[in-house]
């Protein structure tokens, strides 16, 4: 387990809204189910490549269990009427040494507010700190917002269209070329 399990950051979004980025926890099960219930079929399809709404217990464990070593998951929490509410999340799963697959979901009411890019910055910083060299993703060709998040990530991006999907590879800069500025937290962001 790495310090990813204790990660916390507060962000101000471009529209002035505030979110907390923190590790996904086992006790988030109900919050994640509530977030999925607030997600449209289109968004669900863009993330899971299916509109299946129910998960088996095995699938639920797969999505909910993080060891914060090879499987790291973060959630975005917004305040809704005084209640902390999960409005998005991301994860990476190490596929082979140095390479992890990443995936994201932001509920519809919070899309196009910068949460995907914010999550990308935080998960990439954790992946880089963990020694990963590449992040990969399979994205549907028409999921332009997600492709733009990757393009703006500050990482070296290559992509290959395979049928209806785009295989995306994001590479961290070589260490001797200097730090990747986009991975550093912006001034004024809290970390705990």
Question: Would you kindly provide a written description of the structure presented here, covering whatever features stand out?
Answer:
This protein has about 190 residues and is of the alpha+beta class. It is about 25% helix and about 35% strand. The protein has five helices and nine strands, in the order ββαααβββαβαβββ. The chain has helices at about 30-35, 40-50, 55-65, 115-130, 145-150; strands at about 10, 20-25, 70-80, 85-95, 100-105, 135-140, 155-160, 165-170, 190. The protein has a nine-stranded mixed β-sheet, with helices on both faces. A hairpin with a 5-residue loop joins strand 1 and strand 2. The chain is globular. Residues about 175-190 have low confidence and may be disordered.
Question: Quick recap of the structure?
Answer:
With 192 residues, the chain is α+β, with helices and mostly antiparallel strands.
**Helix- and strand-based class?**
alpha+beta
Q: Tell me about the biggest sheet?
A: 9 strands, mixed
Domains counted in the coordinates: how many? Answer: 1
Order of helices and strands: EEHHHEEEHEHEEE
For the record, what CATH class applies? Alpha Beta
How would you sum up the global shape? globular
């Amino acid at each position: 387990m790495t310090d990813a399990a204790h990660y916390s950051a507060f962000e101000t979004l471009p529209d002035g809204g505030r979110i907390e980025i923190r590790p996904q926890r086992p006790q988030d099960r109900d919050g994640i189910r509530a977030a999925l219930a607030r997600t449209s079929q289109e968004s669900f399809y863009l993330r899971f490549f299916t509109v299946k709404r129910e998960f088996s217990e095995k699938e639920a464990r797969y999505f909910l269990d993080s060891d914060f070593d090879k499987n790291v998951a973060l959630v975005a929490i917004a305040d809704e009427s005084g209640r902390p509410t999960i409005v998005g999340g991301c994860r990476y799963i190490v596929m082979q040494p140095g390479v992890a697959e990443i995936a994201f979901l932001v509920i519809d009411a919070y899309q196009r507010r910068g949460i995907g890019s914010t999550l990308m910055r935080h998960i990439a910083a954790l992946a880089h700190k963990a020694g990963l060299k590449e992040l990969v993703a399979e994205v549907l060709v028409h999921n332009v917002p997600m492709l733009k998040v990757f393009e703006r990530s500050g990482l070296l991006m290559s992509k290959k269209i395979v049928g209806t999907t785009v295989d995306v590879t994001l590479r961290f800069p070589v260490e001797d070329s200097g730090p990747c500025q986009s991975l550093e937290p912006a001034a004024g962001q809290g970390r705990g």
